[in-house]
Amino acid sequence: MDAAPHLPVNTSAPRGTARLFLAAGTSFAAHLRAYGALPPTLPAATRAGAGAPADAETVIEQLRAAGLDGRGGAGFPVWRKLASTRSHASGRGSRPAVVIANGSEGEPLSRKDHALLSLAPHLVIDGLLLCAAAVGASDLHFFTTAELAPGVQHALGERPDARHVKVLVTPEAFVAGEATAVVNAVERAVSVPRDHVLHLSEAGLKGRPTLVQNVETLAQLALIARFGAEWFRSIGTEQEPGTRLVTVCGDVATPQVLEVAGGTPLSVLIAAAGGASAPVSAVLVGGYHGAWVPAPALDTPLSREALSPFGAAPGAGVVFVLSSARCGLETAAGIATYLAEQSAGQCGPCVNGLPAMAGVLSRIASRSRDPPLPAEVARLADLVTGRGSCSHPDGTARFVLSSLSVFASDVRAHLASTCEVHGA
Ligand code: SF4
């Protein structure tokens, strides 16, 4: 990277949980003042066509030691994706790799990627350049929303090392952020997922090894490259190291995006957003493809291990608070209906099964006196799970089954034509 040599540079590592939003402005100069330049060994190789640097293995090893997982939802170890893409791009007769920054944020409850790209675009660009250097890619793409694209384009234009990065605008659709849908969007301007028969790291964009990384993942990667794995792990827990961005929304006083230590309890996150506006009924963790955690378990940490008994995971860092002033079943039916409408229309079980499942859940929500309805929801959920080209049916089924389980007493009340929130 060509750091402007006349700029004062703060090379000390950030302390505390405020790591990603330290720059006093969105300019490249403000970014360099806050974080300093990238390590000197990588920059030359980050220019277009420069190929993989000799120390790419060091970057991958650093990420493995840091334990950084993907922040787009799936939580896959970042070093593994890099290592796999690099190995497929460096074999005999292999084709050059492609790297895509994914800022599409199709999850309606999430605003973290929006906040990050609005306030710290250069950290994301640093991460994109580092990934490209590590896998030897000269073809770089930045996938973002129509609202944020001008700012991203401006940030890229501010620095000589990033002018070859191409910006693409994502459509507003739930599945548009799925990694294979991102590749399809870049390749043929159609944002629909594709079969995962071959991993993208082996054959993605036009059959080339392709690395798709969420923008928060890239920003965290840029900090690890500067300050090291040990620094990254100096906050958070052994299993959930570092910080993560969390969107706390729903029935809280001040919905907002927070940067918090990994493993922070849900109750602490809610308090940091000004507290719940009424007694909490349940919290939806991970977004619309997530699962509910009931109110008595609000001390549960935002960690994969602690959330697994509820079928939840940190996912894209969404904590949606539902107060007892709202009917959980009505809320769940509304979300299930939205998800059914977001099917990309390619796979029969998804196209037909999701609307059927949402329809039955809506009948329960509207207090239909029909005792077999919950069993029918469970049957449909079983029918669609594992039957799509992407994880949309599985995520939707998981959410619906979690709703029936956590709001079980509401289900009983509704089947008796009453409602614990709205009465008879
Ligand atoms: S499972 Fe649904 S959303 Fe996914 S590719 Fe098939 S039709 Fe599209």
UniProtKB/TrEMBL annotation:
Cofactor(s) annotated in UniProt: FMN; [4Fe-4S] cluster
Keyword Flavoprotein: yes
GO terms, molecular function: 4 iron, 4 sulfur cluster binding; metal ion binding; NADH dehydrogenase activity
NADH-ubiquinone oxidoreductase 51kDa subunit FMN-binding domain: residues covered: 64-221
One GO BP: cellular respiration
Every Soluble ligand binding domain range: 246-279
Keyword terms: 4Fe-4S, Flavoprotein, FMN, Iron, Iron-sulfur, Metal-binding
Residue ranges constituting the NADH-ubiquinone oxidoreductase 51kDa subunit iron-sulphur binding domain according to the UniProt record: 332-414
UniProt keyword 4Fe-4S, yes or no: yes
A Pfam family hit: Complex1_51K
Annotated family: Belongs to the complex I 51 kDa subunit family.
Protein name per its UniProtKB record: NADH-ubiquinone oxidoreductase 51kDa subunit iron-sulphur binding domain-containing protein
